[in-house]
Queue: 2 jobs
Job 1
Amino acid sequence: MQNINDYNFNNKKALIRVDFNVPLNESMEITDDTRIRAAIPTIKKVLNDGGAVVLMSHLGRPKSGPNDKFSLKHIVNRISELTETKVNFVDDCISEDAITTSSNLNNGEILLLENLRFYKHETAGDQNFSRQLAKHGDVYINDAFGTVHRAHASTAVIAKFFPTEKMFGYLIEKEITSVNKVLTEGKHPITAIVGGAKVSSKLTIIENLLEKVDNIIIGGGMAYTFAKALGGKTGNSLVEDDFIPTAKEILEKANANNVSILLPSDTVAADNFSNEANKQTCSTTEIPDGWMGLDIGVNAINEYSKCIKNSKTILWNGPMGVFEIESFQEGTKQVALAVVEATKNGAFSLVGGGDSVAAVNKFNLADKVSHVSTGGGAMLEYLEGKDLPGIKAILG
Ligand code: AMP
């Protein structure tokens, strides 16, 4: 494996797997170009060194073959604006014409290949398809963190055709470094904040974290399965009865591992799921019949903030309540502010996983934490301790 920063791309053709799966509106205009912007440092490194760039990506989920709605031609101009370089485009990713075009590419030029997923071979991880794709470059760079948990042709299988000339781009490198700063090199005390709707979807993460952190703060809907496991009354709150035994096991294991699990002492309960609902704050284990817990209460906010501000390493995955509704956003907002303050005081903070990322964006705090992960599913699997095929393929 090579390191992008030390590598000299002069006279090299770099085949870069990017994640340009950007949202498009009905007029095929990009509504959020964050993912393109995120790949610019890697592209610029190759161009500035005097190399050429061949970009490959997927866009959407085309069912059967080429479909104009999912064509990457719609994003050519934006890549060109952001790189300040002309971007050439070929309407296929493995045709002879595509391969001739990339082999004629000059240093300083960019070529974008058509959507990889117009071939079902991409998601199937097909060998021949990977071999054909590999013809586009002398060097392979994977900078698509969002798909690193997939064993697809362009994200994993292709790496074997570049036995030595393969590396991560800056984006993936930063994601890996950030997770490692929490899970393997984290300074203690390490606190994980785990929220979101259901305990079932966060079980593997919590189990993995029980081996690595000092505190686990629980919030969101999953808190009520724990509250019921402790014998509490949870009213109409979201409870997964099937997971009550698992919640009990987690509490026991935490105890055995000397990990503090913090459950919300109080809850903002509502009489219906809307911004106009009547609200009351009550103990999380004494929620009246007909009421549901939709946010953590002020005591929980204070306890959680104290724990967060005393931490040197913080990982946050999942909101503390239904933050999308203004009436129930306070817990998530205050926890975000505590993470920001801890970061200001020198803690390392990583926000990873879809909805906590949406929350820090909503409160305009994304640039006040150490790292916000771009890869929802990939980050979740990484935090679960799974081997990610796209990472293994480069390291192996
Ligand atoms: P997840 O994708 O599992 O992280 O869940 C995020 C979702 O959980 C968000 O859409 C929140 O609105 C929702 N959520 C957070 N707290 C609660 C709660 N107390 N009851 C129901 N849903 C919640």
Note: The longest strand covers residues 13-17.
Job 2
Amino acid sequence: MNAFTYRDGSLHAENVPLADIAARFGTPCYVYSRAALTAAWRSFDAAFSGREHLVCYAVKANPSLGVLDVFARLGSGFDIVSGGELARVLAAGGDPRKVVFSGVGKTAADMRAALEAGILCFNVESAPELELLDRVAGGMGVVAPVSLRVNPDVDAKTHPYIATGLKENKFGVAYDDALAVYRRAATLPHLRIEGVDCHIGSQLTETDPFVAALERVLALVDALQRDGIAVHHLDLGGGLGIRYREETPPPVADYARALLAALGARPQKLLFEPGRLLTGNAGVLLSEILYLKLGSERNFAVVDAAMNDLMRPALYDAWHEVLPLRAGNAPVRDYDVVGPVCESGDFLARGRPLAVAAGDLVALASAGAYGMSMASNYNTRPRAAEVMVDGDRMHLIRERETVAQLIANERRLPD
Ligand code: LLP
């Protein structure tokens, strides 16, 4: 669903004019739609309704408590990559027994916290991590549930920074080593093998790489079974893309159909770790135009949001639609929409035809995933406020950071 639509010429989130949110909470400000988050989660869940499965929302896409709260109330599981994300899930009312823990660099402290919470599964990404987890669990007198994240060596055909399933990537256990590492896991007394995990990349717009990865995973499951190692679940990761501009990712029903066909009558429970798909198009970044700078080469619309608020354009050359909150009668010009940060890479959009004036408000679309979660304080810019719209109500889910908070942990030198 698209929760961000124009009504009487003014851009709304559900039933709330975005201009009202800017007036009340200021800019830059992230705005999310509870209805869009809910619809995205439900449609993913429904696509697999014929099979035992668990949707584990990838927290990194948007870890705000208000967002996690929406998913927790729907009964979602969560995919975490740090002790910090675990703490967020717990604070938002998420069920630790539905949490999977991914990531190449888990520390002993992370492992202890997750074992104490009683998570569903560790997605172990290397042989040494397996050994450490066994020692940590042994020290606590518990048994850790594990899957190995295998690297199936398939090309996800996405931006190189967000492809993860190739041999050259740092993620997972190399496919050819996986059987040996599973055999080792089976001998470790404080581990219990639960499943096989893979995740090949993000913003995938075709189903074929997912199916290719699944086929590799299934071949491994067969080999494990021949070895007497039973596998209870298959975690197929996240990665299904969204439309930012002209992409045509498969609808989730097609993705599900392709995976279920490849799975056939296998008995394993399915786990998924979607992030972007559940939040990307459920959020926008609101910003005010501070100045227009008209030039002979380019025109700039200098806005009050910057690369520290939304890093994707600078980092991946990503495209986010720029939506004026109201149609203006200024002349249409091509603008680079840029922030106040002192870098030429600080752009949010380039060469966009816009009819805007200083003081106008714009929304950067499709900013619900990897927007706020990747925000920084570069240039000592406090991070934006976040608001959740629910029908005709708005809830402040994160207050705007203050400069006092930014420097609170810092110290001058002693006299
Ligand atoms: N599971 C694992 C192990 C992951 O590493 C990721 C994302 C996901 C699930 C969720 O993937 P999704 O469904 O959101 O594609 N900052 C980048 C995206 C980085 C993705 C990192 N891993 C961006 O803004 O495009």
Note: The chain has a mean pLDDT of 96.
